[in-house]
Amino acid sequence: MLSSQTKDEVTDAAVDKLRAALGGTLSLDALLSAEEQVIADAISKVGFWRRKTQFVPTPPFCPPQK
User: Fold this and answer.
1) How many domains does the chain have?
2) SS3 sequence, the chain?
3) Which of 5, 19, 58, 65 has the fewest Cβ atoms surrounding its Cβ within 10 A?
4) Position 1 in a domain
5) pLDDT tens digits for the chain (66 residues)?
6) Which is nearest to 39 in space by CA: 30, 47, 63?
7) Using an 8 Å Cβ cutoff, are 50 and 40 in contact?
8) What's residue 43's pLDDT?
9) Which residues contact 63 (CB under 8 A, 6 or more apart)?
10) Which pTM was predicted?
């Protein structure tokens, strides 16, 4: 999702920054529990980052949270 409209080098750096911001893991639990601002700060260099910030913790395969 991050790579759409973004150069590979920028995407790679954003993924590294996101992983570090989430404590070294990109697990589903880490993404779901992350604050939106943490995700936004990590991916702010990718294209359409504001919109992607909303989508990252809710990929299509995630069950709705109860």
Assistant:
1) 1
2) CCCCCCCHHHHHHHHHHHHHHCCCCCCHHHHHHCCHHHHHHHHCCCCCHHHHHHHCCCCCCCCCCC
3) 65
4) no
5) 778 788 899 999 999 999 999 999 888 888 888 899 999 999 999 988 888 888 777 766 555 665
6) 30
7) yes
8) 92
9) none
10) 0.79
